[in-house]
Design a protein that fits this description.
- The chain is built from 17 helices and eight strands.
- It is an alpha/beta fold.
- The protein has an eight-stranded mixed sheet, sandwiched between helices.
- Helix 4 crosses helix 5 and helix 8 (167-181) runs parallel beside helix 9.
- The radius of gyration is 40 Å and the shape is flat.
Length: 419
C-alpha cells in the first residue's frame, strides 16, 4: 500500500463523517447564498474543525466565489480543498541535521508517547541511524520496562536509571552518552502530565533547559503527542503545553480510529504549530510523516474514485498474473501427463473402485458356479475342485456374499416348488 493509500485509509472515518455532512449540504441547495454559507459554517464546526477556523474557511470561500463567479454549490468542494490545503501550509519534517539530534517527546498520559517513541526509533534505525532512547519517565509504574520492550524491538539503545530518579538526570546522561558513542538521534521520553500539575510542568521546563544546554548547537525538536480521538480537547492541550515548552511539532496519534481528524486544520490555523507526524495504525511502521497535500486530497477524494483507482491498478496486474499462473498450471499438467510413470499398484483415491471391481468378479464367479453346479457334478474331479473353490469363497473375504447369494437362490427354488 502506497503513502497516499495509507493516509486515505487512515482518515477514512474523518472523510466519511465530514464529506457525508458536506455532500448532504451541497445536495440540499441549488444556489449559493448567505443561508448556504451559514449552513456550511455550522457543518464545519460539527466536523471538529473549530469555530474560528470554520469562520475563516467560509470567509475565504466567499472571496473565491465572488472572484470566480461560482453559482453551482457542486463546485464548492474543489475550492474547499484548495483553501484547506493552503491553511495547512508547507510540510515541515523533523530536523535531524546534526549528530546528535535531540527529540523531546511530551504529552498527557494515554496519548501514545511510548508507542510513538518506539515507532520513531524503529524508523530511524531502519534508515541506518544510531538511536539512543532516554527513559526519563521515572514516575509511572513499569514505564521503563515498557519502553525497554519497544527499544529492543526497534534495535536501538536505551539509557535508564532506577524508578523514581530525577528525569532531568536521565536526559543529561543520555545526551552525554550519545556524544561519546557517536549516536545520531537521542529520543527523550517524559512522564505524562496535565497542565494544572505545577510541579510536573516545572520539571518539564527543567528538562527543556538541560536539553538546550547539553545539546547546544544541535537540532532540538520538542514534539507534543496528541490523541486525535479527543477532538477539540487536543487543541486546548496544545495551547497549554506551548506555554511551558517551545513546541516545534505535533504528533497526532490514533488518527485511524476517530472521525475527528479535522483538528489538524485547527492546530495549524489557530496555534501555528505544524503537525509533523501522524499515527494511522498499530504496526511499528504506521507512524508517517504528515503531508498537507495528501491529507487534503484524501479528505476530499470520493470513496468511489479511491476504490476505483486502487482496484484498477491491482486488476491490471492481477489479470496478467492470473494468465501467467494459468499457463504455468497448463504446462505443468502436460508435463505430468507425458512423464508420469505408470504404476501397477492402485492409487489410494481409487481403492473403492478396485474393491467394487473385486466384488463384481466375485459375484460373477459365484453365480457361474451356481448355474453350472449340476453339470460339474458329473465329473468327480471337477466337482471336487468346484466344491473346494466354493468352500474357499465361503470362508474367505467374500464369504458373506456367497452366503447371501446361496440363501437367495434356495429361497427362490423353494418359492418355485411351492407354486
Amino acid at each position: 500500500m502506497g503513502f497516499f493509500e495509507k493516509i486515505a485509509e487512515g482518515i477514512r472515518k474523518t472523510r466519511d463523517s465530514m464529506m457525508g455532512k458536506v455532500n448532504s449540504l451541497l445536495n440540499s441547495f441549488t444556489k449559493i447564498d448567505e443561508d448556504f454559507f451559514e449552513e456550511l459554517e455550522e457543518t464545519l464546526i460539527m466536523c471538529d474543525i473549530g469555530v474560528q477556523t470554520s469562520v475563516d474557511i467560509c470567509s475565504e470561500l466567499r472571496k473565491k466565489v465572488k472572484e470566480k463567479g461560482i453559482t453551482d454549490p457542486a463546485l464548492i468542494k474543489g475550492e474547499l480543498k484548495d483553501i484547506i490545503a493552503a491553511m495547512l501550509g508547507e510540510d515541515k519534517k523533523l530536523d535531524t541535521s546534526t549528530s546528535p539530534s535531540v527529540v523531546l517527546v511530551i504529552g498527557v498520559n494515554g496519548a501514545g508517547k511510548t508507542t510513538t517513541i518506539g515507532k520513531l526509533a524503529a524508523k530511524y534505525t531502519n534508515e541506518g541511524k544510531k538511536v539512543i532512547v532516554a527513559a526519563a519517565d521515572t514516575f509511572r509504574a513499569a514505564a521503563i520496562d515498557q519502553l525497554q520492550v519497544w527499544v529492543d524491538r526497534a534495535g536501538a539503545q536505551i539509557v535508564k536509571h532506577a524508578e523514581g530518579s530525577d528525569p532531568a538526570a536521565v536526559v543529561f546522561d543520555a545526551i552525554t552518552a550519545a556524544k561519546a558513542r557517536g549516536a545520531d538521534i537521542v529520543i527523550c521520553d517524559t512522564a505524562g502530565r496535565l497542565h494544572n500539575k505545577k510541579n510536573l510542568m516545572d520539571e518539564l521546563k527543567k528538562i527543556t533547559r538541560i536539553c538546550s544546554q547539553q545539546a547546544e548547537g544541535c537540532a532540538l525538536e520538542t514534539l507534543l503527542v496528541l490523541d486525535a480521538t479527543t477532538g477539540q480537547n487536543a487543541v486546548n492541550q496544545a495551547k497549554l503545553f506551548s506555554e511551558a515548552a517551545d513546541i516545534t511539532g505535533i504528533v497526532l496519534t490514533k488518527l485511524d480510529g476517530t472521525a475527528k481528524g479535522g483538528i489538524i486544520i485547527t492546530i495549524h490555523r489557530e496555534l501555528g504549530i505544524p503537525v509533523k507526524l501522524v499515527g494511522v495504525g498499530e504496526k511499528i511502521d504506521d507512524l508517517m510523516d504528515f503531508s498537507a497535500k495528501d491529507y487534503a486530497e484524501a479528505l476530499f477524494v470520493s470513496e468511489t474514485d479511491f476504490k476505483g483507482n486502487y482496484e484498477r491498478l491491482t486488476d491490471e496486474t492481477g489479470e496478467e498474473t492470473a494468465a501467467e499462473e494459468t499457463e504455468v498450471i497448463d504446462s505443468s499438467a502436460e508435463e505430468v501427463t507425458e512423464e508420469a510413470p505408470v504404476t501397477e499398484e492402485p492409487a489410494l483415491d481409487t481403492a473403492e473402485e478396485n474393491i467394487a471391481e473385486s466384488e463384481a468378479e466375485a459375484y460373477e464367479d459365484i453365480e457361474a458356479d451356481n448355474i453350472n453346479e449340476n453339470e460339474e457334478a458329473a465329473d468327480t474331479e471337477e466337482n471336487t475342485d468346484a466344491a473346494a473353490q466354493k468352500k474357499s469363497l465361503k470362508d474367505g473375504k467374500f464369504g458373506f456374499l456367497f452366503k447371501e447369494i446361496t440363501f437367495g437362490k434356495k429361497k427362490k427354488d423353494e418359492n418355485e416348488t411351492n407354486e
